[in-house]
Design goal:
By secondary structure, the chain is α/β, with parallel strands linked by helices. 27% of the residues lie in helices and 27% in strands. The strands form five sheets. Strands 6-5-4-3-2-1-14 form a seven-stranded mixed sheet. The protein has a seven-stranded mixed sheet with strand order 7-8-9-10-11-12-13. Bound molecules: zinc ion (3 copies).
């Protein structure tokens, strides 16, 4: 579900006629405020809240082509005077347009727009509407969504706000009665009246609405019905991070708080995917540079009320365009999307990288996928980003396409660690050389392998330490050798200090790569079934010992060194 702010201004609008104040003469488009109204859209449905005197202009800007219904909060002129402009929508929808309001609002509308309700022949075109009175308690069910009227005090009068799903829109009000507050718990988004700083007899103020937000604790709040006392940029800077000034054209995606979604194909992408701030890339390893890009995406998305999104590819594009150069991956796709969730993203599209996708020109890739399907309003990428057939598109081209299709472009500079530029290729190189500490620094977490615990050659039981063998790996594996590791049970969160051997176990005449982990403390309860092994530090090469006893003695020495290393480093983990 999306909510579009059609107007965020007070009854006279901003700029105000005849006023030369800094806000009324500001160049910032967010300081231009039409009269207050929002449009709620979901699954092809659209509900308009209030028909302001600016409705025609607002409908054109938001591309409104049809409406399921109009809800009226109250019948003040700034909320109803555009009602006549629904006429073009009548041409596009059969039957009259339902207009819901309280008994008082509907009576005022019928009086104000008397010509609409007169019976008898007329030569001019008049709106076809059907007024429906609500009792202020019962939810209005429209297109499968309940719109719950919320009773509010507007000076001495009673007006209504509406709750729909996890969003609520409370325009004009001076007070919210306690029984209405009860209906406003667990909101993702709350829109509410905040006229100005100075008190007003019939409107809430910035201070008062901040108190409301403090009490109701929505995930995000947007102030609306704003007068020319509040310059957008300066006011925004003074508000808490989850509270913003609404502005005309702002589109907010309403979702379950904390909801994270992964889509495995374009066909799965729902129509309400965006609007989003988007990053695009392989993101193998989700290392420090990837995370700084994702942090920017999340910051832009939260500031604008969009979704924070990423598009990544599976398989790695190189596997399709140059299979012989296909890299061994640091992270499988599930682990990668989980790390992207942790980096603050709301949704990820894993685009199956097929030969057809590889053939898309840079321009079509942006137009068809990035703007048309994902509704990206901002694209944030790394400095070395390339896209489209033959990787022909670069950041300069992205800037041009952004201007043409109307999305912002932000290029993140390289992130350096000592003399290295942080990158997946560099991390892979560290790991293939057994340099786990540098890999750890670039990833901002230890490199890890995970998988099922499989039966080993039975050697472990002859040792004195519990041994877990990791199932065969498809991605990158550290240089053969012995490592200080930490082992996590993926099913119940238990964890152990450990030492792991990557190699062919030459003492026992092995020839297949195995990853064998010796826990430094016994485990209580059942044997773990799925584990993650974090590689922290390489102790030594794998080598052949005379016999199992010599190996056992070496393992005990390894264990001692590992304990010492872990004591020193665990406080950083
Ligand atoms: Zn108003
Ligand atoms: Zn002014
Ligand atoms: Zn009012």
């Amino acid at each position: 579900m999306n909510v579009t702010v059609l107007g965020s201004g007070t009854s006279v609008g901003v700029p105000t006629i005849g006023c030369h104040c800094p806000v009324c003469t500001s160049d910032d488009p967010r300081d231009r405020r039409l009269r207050p109204s929002v449009l709620v859209r979901w699954d092809g449905h659209a509900v308009l809240i209030d028909t302001t005197p600016d409705f025609r202009q607002q409908a054109l800007a938001a591309h409104i082509e049809r409406l399921d219904a109009v809800l009226i909060t109250h019948a003040h002129a700034d909320h109803i005077m555009g009602l006549d402009d629904v006429r073009p929508l009548n041409f596009r929808t059969p039957g009259p347009l339902p207009v819901y309001g309280s008994a008082g609002s509907i009576a005022t509308i019928r009086r104000t727009f008397q010509y609409i309700f007169e019976t008898g022949p007329t030569e001019s075109s008049i709106p076809k509407i059907e007024t429906r009175v609500f009792d202020g308690e019962t939810a209005l069910r429209i297109g499968g969504v309940d719109f719950v009227p919320i009773r509010l005090a507007h000076g001495s009068g009673t007006v209504y706000g509406f709750r729909f799903g996890e969003a609520a829109y409370l325009t004009d009000h001076s007070d919210i009665p306690p029984e209405s507050r009860e209906k406003l718990r667990n909101l993702d988004v709350l829109f509410l009246d905040a006229l100005r700083y100075r008190p007003h007899p019939t409107h809430s103020t910035v201070q008062r609405s901040l108190e409301t937000v403090e009490e109701l604790k929505p995930r995000r709040a947007f102030f609306t019905h704003i007068c020319h006392d509040l310059p957008h940029k300066e006011t925004e800077a003074k508000l808490p991070t989850n509270v913003h000034l609404a502005y005309d054209g702002l589109v907010i995606h309403v979702g379950a708080p904390g909801g994270f979604r992964v889509f495995r194909s374009l066909a799965e992408v729902p129509s309400d995917f965006g609007p989003c701030a988007l990053t695009i890339g392989n993101f193998d390893g989700v290392h420090a540079a990837h995370r700084s890009i994702m942090n920017r995406v999340a910051a832009i998305a939260h500031e604008r009320g969009w979704r924070a999104a990423a598009m990544t590819f599976d398989p790695h594009p190189t596997a399709i365009v140059a299979p012989e150069k296909r890299p061994q991956l640091l992270t499988g796709i599930d682990r990668r999307t989980e790390l992207m969730r942790q980096a603050g993203l709301d949704e990820v599209l894993v685009l199956p990288f097929t030969p057809e996708v590889a053939r898309l020109s840079a321009e079509r890739f942006i137009r068809e996928i990035v703007t048309e399907r994902l509704d990206a309003r901002a694209v944030v990428v790394g400095h070395n980003f390339h896209f489209g057939r033959g990787a022909a598109g670069d950041t300069a081209m992205l800037h041009e396409l952004g201007q043409f299709y109307g999305f912002e472009v932000e290029i993140c500079p390289a992130v350096r660690y000592r003399r290295h530029v942080v990158g997946s290729t560099q991390v892979r190189q560290f790991i293939t050389h057994g340099d786990m500490m540098n890999a750890w620094r670039m990833l901002q977490r230890p490199f890890a392998l995970e998988g099922a615990v499989v039966p080993g050659a039975g050697i472990g039981r002859q040792q004195t330490v519990p041994t877990l063998n990791l199932s065969e790996q498809t991605g990158l594996v550290p240089l053969a050798g012995v490592y200080v590791t930490r082992t996590h049970d993926l099913d119940d969160g238990r964890e152990w200090r450990s030492v792991s051997n990557v190699g062919v176990r030459p003492t026992f005449g092995g020839d297949r790569l195995s990853i064998e982990t010796f826990l430094l403390s016994p485990f209580d309860g059942r044997t773990p079934e799925r584990i993650r092994v974090e590689f922290l530090y390489r102790l030594r090469d794998e080598r052949k010992f005379e016999n199992a006893d010599a190996l056992k003695a070496q393992i005990l020495r390894d264990a001692k060194r590992a304990e010492r290393f872990l004591r020193l480093t665990e406080r950083f983990l």
